[in-house]
Design brief:
Shape: flat
Radius of gyration: 24 Å
Strand content: under 5%
Keywords: Membrane, Transmembrane, Transmembrane helix
Helix content: 55-70%
Number of domains: 2
Structural class: mainly alpha
Largest sheet: none
Order of helices and strands: HHHHHHHHHHHHHHH
Amino acid sequence: MKNRLKIIAWYIFFIYFFAFLMLSATMAQIDPAPRYHLFGWLNKIFADISFWTTQTNWMFFIFFLFVALNGKWGLWKPGKVAWINFLSYFTLTMVLFWSALSGSKELPLVLWANEYNSFIKWFITVTTHLVTYLIAMIYYFFIVKKEKIDISNWYKKNLLIGWIYPIFYLFFVLIRMLIMNYLDVEHFIKQASNSEISWIEENHEWVLDLPIYVLSTPYFFFNPFVVNGKELIVAGTMVCLLLITLCQYLLIWINNLCLKEKNTSKNNQIIELNTEEKLIAYIKIMLGLIFISVAIYKLTIFSNYNFNNKENTLYHIMYIIVYLFALILNITMILFAIFRLCKIYENKNIEFVSSFFSGFFLIHIYILPIVILIPIIAERFSENKEVLLKK
């Protein structure tokens, strides 16, 4: 009887949520954001699925199908790593929307994002940006059986697995943007139906004057063709990836806290470094000092600051954000390298994250900061060598 009720509950859940996704997709066709009225049905689909929210909500539906099947017929069963990454993506969806994208209409692309002028639109928005997140969180923390997650080794593989989908999403958005920029806005105006053009002229005539980059990017921070565009896309990409990373570690900490297990890690562990590890630490310090110098230099170019134009204010703020993040992360990397050399303290998770982002927040500067991968990869080889020797 209990299993029968469980099956019925799953059926109701999936029928309801599939109907909701169909409603959302239908609204994206018949009443999309004003700027998307220029598109035909196929481009409206691509515009809709270019949003992180849309993709993660379809992911929600597919993920819970596997959860409900619970490994039946030999199918994949979501484990602890999958749950942590899945919840991290949804946390990003919720945090970004309610903290930034639902804010002032004076901000770039918030003005052009959508018009919440009906109950159905608000219902879809609240469901996709809040309700699904709460369902996922409640299900995981109250129903899924918890397993201990080794947070100390998370950075070695599982952290990178969690980055695969966001990086795929970034490439999807950028490729679509480049294709649309090649076609240009006139291509879409010519293809738009007379009824859509009439609607735009009557209600949102400004849409016809929009540059192509406004039509081709779902979010303002994925747009390299505006003021401080390179800094904007780097800040948008790296901040989102950093937020996902922080969410992963927060969720692991909460997960392990729920198990109420005693911490068996050795706080007074002796730090021993071989010559190779010392060399890697010195390389990190040297690169960190170079990156800090670059960030300070960029911050002193005051011609890139112009807050008189309200529409471009956020673009100038992003310029400051990207180099401040670079400063903070490089200082963190240097400090932890010094701590290791002095045998004071080590935390390989923080070292890896700060090292990676210290360079990639400056990746737009002739791609030179990619050299940060040299000590990161060398460190990984050194760790693997130590493991083999111990075996």
